[in-house]
Every structure is written in C-alpha cells, then in structure tokens.
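Limitations

Structures in this collection are predictions, not experimental determinations, and the ligand pose is part of the prediction. Treat each record accordingly. The example that follows, with magnesium ion as the small molecule, is included so readers can see exactly what is and is not provided: the inputs are given verbatim, and the output is the predicted complex.
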Amino acid sequence: MKMAMLIKRPNGTQDAVPGEVYKWHTVENVVRDSAEQFGFKEIRIPTFEETGLFVRSVGDTTDVVQKEMYTVSSTGDKTYTLRPEGTAGTIRAIIENGILNEGLPQKVFYLLSCFRHEKAQKGRLREFHQFGCEMLGAASPSADADTIALAHSVLGRLGLKNIVLNINSIGCPECRAKYREALKAYFEPHREELCATCQERLDKNPLRLLDCKSAEDQAIAKDAPIMTDYLCEDCAAHFEGVKKNLGIMGIDYVVNPKIVRGLDYYTRTVFEFISNDIGSQGTVCGGGRYDGLVEELGGKPTPALGFAMGLERILLTMEAQGCEFMEEKTCDLYVASMGEAAAAKAVEIAAAMRDEGFYAEYDLVGRGLKAQMKYADKIRAKYVIVIGDSELESGTAKLKNMATGEQTDISLGEGLLDDFGAQYYEMMLSTDDDFRSFVESFADDKQ
Ligand code: ATP
Ligand code: MG
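Predicted complex:
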C-alpha cells in the first residue's frame, strides 16, 4: 500500500529521477563540449545574490523584477534573491574576481538553476535550469555571430530540428530613445485597450509592449513601428555585420522586429531560437548584446554579450521530436554467489573489477541465486559470474554473456581480470559501433 505523502514537491518544480537523469546528462555533456570547442570556460556562482544586483541589471520595469523574484530577508537590513537568471551574477563575479584584467575576450559558460515566481505550466517552471554563456570585451559583429553559432551548434548536436533563429537589433541608447518615442505615439491612442501591465509599460518601457503575451495586445502591436527603421549608422552597420557573419557560417535566420527580450540590459543584437513543437513556451534560447551592463555593475566599460538556453524546454523539444539520448551506463559484471564463502569471494571480485574501471555489483540484500540472476537481468548486466562452493574449490566458474546466453569457463585466480578483460573487449568490438571506430582510429594512428 502506498502511504499518503505528508509533503509534496513545490508547485513549478521537478525531480529528475534516476531513470530520467541520463536525459539531462545527454544535454549537459553536449553543452559542456560545445562550449569548450568555442573557447568558453565554466564559471560557478552563488544561488543567491543581493537583491540590488538583479534590480540594477535585469531592470526594475521587467516582469522578472516586478513579479517573479524570490526574495528572502535575513537578519540585518540586506535582502537576498534567488537568482532568476545567470548573467547578473556572472558579470558580478567577473568584475569582483578581476577577470577582465586577464586579457580579452573573456568567455565563460554556466549550467545552473534559476528561480522565478511564475504561473507554472508546460515549459514554464518556478525552478528551471539554464545553460548560458557570456563573452566580454568583444565589440565586433563577429562576436555576436560566434556566440549565436555556439547556441546553434548545441541545438544541432542534440539533434533538434525546425528551430528558427530570430534576430533583431534594438540599437543603442541614442537611437532607441527615438524609437521609444515613436512606439509611444503609436500605442497611445490604444491605451485603454491594452492590458493593465502594458498600460504601465507604455509610460515606463514601451519596448516591452512588443513582448506582451496577450493576444489582444499582440494584435494592436501588429503594425507598430520597427526598431530596424530607427537604427543609427553604427548600429545598422553592426547589424549588417552580424548577418554577414552568420551567412559565412551557413546559419539560417529570420529578422524579427518583435524580438526585444524581456530583460533591460540588452543593446544592439538580440536573438531567440524558437521551436514550434512544444506549444506556446517555444523559446528555447534567448540572448543578445549588453554593452552597458559591466559599467552599470561598477566595472570598466566593456562590451559584452551572451545567451541562456532553457534546459527543460530543450528536453521537452527533444522528447517531442524523438531525439536520441545517450545510453544509460549498465552493469558490466554481476557476481552472483551462493553460500557465505562464495559471498565473500563475490565482494573481492567486484572490488577488483571496480579497481580496473568496470561497473560491478553483487548481492547486498541476501537474495537466493535465482533471485540474484533475476536482479542481474533487471539491471541489464552484461555478464554474470556464478560462484558456489564447488567453484571455490575448483578455482573456475561460469561467466555468462547475458545478451547471447553463451557461457565460458573463467579462472577465479590470478587470470580473472585478464580473461574477463579480453572477453569484454571482444564483446564491445562486436556490439558497440562507437567503441569499434575508436579502436580502429587508434590502429590507423599507429600505422
Ligand atoms: P519567456 O518570454 O518565455 O518568459 P524570458 O524572456 O523570461 O522567457 P529569459 O530570461 O531570456 O526568458 O531566459 C532564457 C531562457 O530560459 C528562455 O528562453 C527559456 O528557454 C528559459 N526560461 C525562462 N523562464 C523560464 C521558466 N519559467 N521555466 C522554464 N524555462 C524558462
Ligand atoms: Mg519570462
């Protein structure tokens, strides 16, 4: 009988149970590897920061700061907030640790959890995970394109299809000021028809109106003026440069004037990768340039840019598209035993196997031999050795290949590791394509 649980998981959070966690590993391995290929090094930052950091950097008119932050008070007068995103803390850490003095550009990436008090739904959680990267000290359009290329590489390597790269430029503070006025003039006659939040946005931050999720507001915004018509000469040239470099790398994109991004610190290039396969929360990755942020946080003026990828949305899309996940590691050798002396031998063999780098298990719960074999089957052990009193006496036992059912004699003495190693190698050569091509490439090198 299942007992009634006293306390359940908080709304908008998820558990990654052992049977599913290999999906996360698939994504994490690919993002780490791709980030390193592009020269990004991992950074780790605290889960919470002083609230002021997010208010200053994310911006006090954004949804994140106005409605979504988990802020906790502690003794004293400071308040702290669970990070709603990774950029602010990363830039803070880069400035605080003097990393900008070490030669530019500096390129870092992170894998972390974020916390936002949102209405939980598919693809929108209260605790979610991001892979993000930040590049500091590179002002050229090629830096924008290279950062976009990293996100593009990750999505491609994960096997994702039909993900559209949307790009836009939101200019610099100078040209954006003119655009903001044009937007205000456009929306003002519709003020009463807008949602309550957008009425406020109209006064404080009209660009945010383009980002509104309400269908009515989106309809009103349909013919709004577009930023790319207002770009100054430098910003327009920069945007052309980004497009040119994307072209060189063969990365397809659409220019979408409605992309403005939810956070305040962006300048010039902004972009989103959008999937149509997971419903309305389809933005799997968002990013852009934020040339003013380092200075805003007390560092010397430094051009910078980055993106963050929502890993839950990536996983949802991978599942929806039937993408392949890496295989779970399965047991190499299960040592089954009968009797006390044999059980002790099983412990010894498993320990020696593990020292050699194999994944080995033996009985820990006092099962009979038949039940041990059943368990070995359940954990999909590749091989089983069966040891009883007579095997101990003769010094040889049966080694069973669980996939083929084939049984061979194996010495329990000195030769055990070598004999098992040799059989295992042959089995891998004939069943694992990756292993075979690895071995073959090694052989080619030797010639
Ligand atoms: P949205 O418009 O969907 O609210 P956002 O603009 O708030 O997204 P960002 O702050 O740019 O999102 O975060 C980068 C990425 O993190 C998003 O593109 C998305 O993939 C993911 N993300 C953001 N909020 C959530 C959430 N609450 N749950 C799951 N993933 C999220
Ligand atoms: Mg949001």
